[in-house]
Design brief:
The structure holds 2 protein chains of 2 kinds.
Chain A: H1 14-19, H2 29-44, H3 53-63, E1 67-72, E2 78-82, E3 90-97, E4 102-108, E5 113-119, E6 131-134, E7 139-144, E8 166-168, H4 174-178, E9 186-189, E10 194-196, E11 199-202, H5 205-219, E12 225-232, H6 240-249, E13 253-261, E14 285-287, H7 297-310, E15 315-317, H8 326-329, E16 338-346, E17 353-356, H9 357-372
Parallel strand pairs in A: 3-12, 3-13, 13-16, 14-15
Antiparallel strand pairs in A: 1-2, 2-12, 4-5, 4-9, 5-8, 6-7, 6-9, 7-8, 10-11, 11-17, 14-16, 16-17
Helix pairs in contact in A: 2-5, 5-9, 7-9
Chain B: H1 2-10, H2 19-29, E1 35-38, E2 44-48, E3 57-63, E4 68-74, E5 80-85, E6 97-100, E7 105-110, E8 125-128, E9 144-147, E10 152-154, E11 157-160, H3 163-178, E12 185-191, H4 199-208, E13 212-220, E14 239-244, E15 247-248, H5 251-263, E16 269-273, H6 281-284, E17 291-299, E18 307-310, H7 311-325
Parallel strand pairs in B: 3-12, 3-13, 13-17, 14-16
Antiparallel strand pairs in B: 1-2, 2-12, 4-5, 4-9, 6-7, 6-9, 7-8, 10-11, 11-18, 14-15, 14-17
The chains are: A alpha+beta, B alpha+beta.
Amino acid sequence: MPRTSTARARPRSAPAARRRGIRPQPASPAVLRKSLERLRRLSEASGVSGDEGAVRQIVLETIEGHADEVRVDALGNVLARARAGSRRGLRVMLTAHMDEVGLMVLGVTAEGMLKFDRVGGVDERALVAKPVLVGRARIPGVIGGTPPHLIDWADEPSPYKIPALAIDIGARTKEEALERVHPGDAVVFATRFERLGNVLRGKALDDRVGVATLLELVLDPPPGIELLAAFTTQEEVGLRGAAVAAHALDPQAAIVLDCTPANDLPLWDGRENTTYNTRLGFGPAIYVGDGGTLPNPRLIEHLVRTAEAAGLPYQYRQPGGGSTDAAAIHLARKGIPSISLSVPGRYLHTPLSMIHFDDWRASVSLVRAALARLRLDNIR
Amino acid sequence: MKALIRKLSEAYGPSGREDALRQIVRAELRGLSDYISEDPLGNLHAVIKQKARSGRRIMLAAPMDEVGLQVSHVDENGFLRFAPLGPLEPLHCVGARVRFADGRVGVIGVESRGEASALPTVHQLFVDVGAVDRDSSAFKPGEAAVFDRALAEVDGRLVGKALGGRTAVAVLLETLRHLKRTPHEVQFVFSVQEHVGSRGARTAAFALEPEVALTVDAAPASDIPRGSPAAIALGHGPVIRAREGYAISDPRIVEWMATRASEARLPHQLGVFDTSASNPTTVQTSRAGVVTAGLGLPCRYLYTSSEMVDLSDAENAVKLLLSLLASPLPF
């Protein structure tokens, strides 16, 4: 992308912006193929909060030799300063969280079944009969429960809830099970990543899609800013990695790349759905306020103007509850102007999440264009 | 002080959009402090530098923001669906007029419901801005509105929107204006995003590194029909908060404030609140810890379009703060 002028980078109108080279170039087919393959690997890797090692490995491998400074901090965050970024530009932190919601083995019954609990907000309704992978050795199992024929609803009112379920790895005794798994092992859903036309589906797209985007940015950083990338840990259990990453990096602004629920299905009674949070196919979702953060108003404006100038689709993430790493980041130190940008995803925190390829690519283009023209004026 | 409170109360400033308040406060601060600065979240700091070796770094914080709502969706008929911004109660919404940043006004309505006596949920509420359909609506998700109410005076008491918090802002400004002598570095913080979790005060405390902090804010008054027996009453003086939700005030400051108020013959009340309006915890746990307590201004009907305060409580709060700041700390 051509460098924008060093004077005021804010365009007066969209045509002027285009003349100055704001319109983003889509990634080349080769870059796209690689990035999609990377997203597949990231989605299928195990990375339950607190045990993000496999995802971290992919991140480190990918950026090796492409960043000026890479370190893994005490909480397991990967902090990288992108190469070729300007040392005199604004210090901007970009984050995506490596961890996913999942399960953890609590213990093994005499019959060799694994009792478990949730790590983060896994959708409890979606557990029974799902194939899973247990521990770093990825031992296959299935979440077992009472067959529908035999449920006595009066006797067992919640047959699909965690106390009534156990993971079956085919062991016949406790001893046999303990040869392969241990209490404390993290458990992920055994979902293969697939592309069906414009639809990408797989597990943990929240937030592996953000990780994939951030990797693309580190490999090919936008000009004009100093890009500080933080691949964070333990987001799903309380934004813990981001809090320490922000303290360490002490940036002038932060953009969080996440994946947020799309609850955009029609309502059962035909009324207008007014609480969809986001909608698939409407472009990346710009945050205007959630339960943890009121984004910097000038950063909201900057993203909106950039999208409009570049002719990129965008939508607003409906204000309300929920939060992202921005909630921890914007309160770090003396305060850090922050905003989140999410790819909308259906069925998040279940074994299978679904995003639109186009929404993802537009989010990459939008954040790239927004960073290239981000100046101090945009956050003051 | 009344004119100042009116100006502050009527200004637009939902959490995260405190620009108008910042402008008013900045103008009022002119020439009053050694320096003024604005931090990345938008807090204003006005600092009086330390004048004597016996002085300490004392932070006084009051919130600029107010409760409001944020548009979440423009429906097919042009009605605005919204999410609360801060502690907005559906009970206080129906029929209220609200105002957006640019002055546009709307009225909050409620869907027809089977059980009309039940409290509405926020999803059943909408803002009617006179639009007829979505396409002609100029509103966008994220735009924020606040109650639209002019200040009124009822039998010597003041009634208005955002009145409790803004009176606290006025108390800080008046204290600064009349602060002639103090051994301390006094850090006046006009904070942002207080109503969504005391976020501004947290970052301001990190930046200013106070040793002692007093958060000044509205305290819910319960001297109303069937109110609490341990009533905080309007006109009985500022409230020295011993506890506020999870925040336990440091007993040294509580005692210091109570003793000084008694010595100066200033009316005051001791208050214990199980829930927290402003949350001093975010200041208390900043960096290596700050000795913190809260000073409250009794306020009825908190977070409604008509909060009520008694001017004498504000005046006595100013006198108490001036008296506290005049000499070295006893601890």
